Amino acid sequence: MRRALAAAVLAVLAIAFAIYPDLVRASDEAPSALKGPFAENLTFSDPPVPAPSVAFETLQGAPVSLQEFKGELVLVNFWATWCAPCIREMPGLERLHQAFKDEGFLVMAVSQDRGGAAKVVPFLERLGLDELPVFLDRKGALARAFALRGLPATFLIGRDGAVVAGMTGPAEWDSPEAMALIRHYLGPQEAGTDTSG
Length: 197
Hints:
Blueprint: H1 2-19, H2 26-29, H3 37-40, E1 43-50, E2 56-58, E3 63-64, E4 73-79, H4 84-100, E5 105-111, H5 117-127, E6 134-136, H6 141-145, E7 153-157, E8 162-168, H7 176-186, H8 188-191
Parallel strand pairs: 4-5, 5-6
Antiparallel strand pairs: 1-8, 2-3, 2-6, 4-7, 7-8
C-alpha cells in the first residue's frame, strides 16, 4: 500500500514538473541560496516522497536500487545517447560529481538506451567521461517509476531516501547555483563550511 501511494505521489510530481511548472517554485520552497534561472526550473516536493525501489543495473550488469544509497545525497539524471540536450549537460554532471564525491554526494547518470553497456560504454569513451557514475535502465522500469515525461530529467534524493526536487530539461550542473543546491542539502558539516561565523 505504501509503495503504491509513493508511486502515485511521484507520478503527480512528475506531471506537475511537466504541466504545472509554477506549482511549487524556488521562491516558495527552495533554499535561500538558490536564486536565478537555475532555481526557477526546479520543482520542490513538499513534503518529500520516498524514491522508487525499482531495480536497475550497473554498467557491469549487476542489479542495484536507490535504497542501497540511503545516507548519501544522490542526483539521479535520466539520459540517452540519442538525446542532444542530455549530451550537452553530461560534462557538467561529471564536474559536479567530482566536486562533491568525497562529501557523501553521488551523481547517477541513468541511461535509457535499450542497447545497454554495448551502446553506452563506447559513447562515454568518445566523450571522455571517465569519472561520471553511469547506470542502465534498459527496460525503462526506473523511468516509469518516476513517471518521466521527457529527457533529460533529474531528481535530487536526500540522505533519507526521499525525493527532494526534480527538473525536466537540461541544466548547467556545474554552475554556482547547482553547487549551492548540493551544498545546502549536504549540510554545513558535510560540505566542510565554517559554521562559527
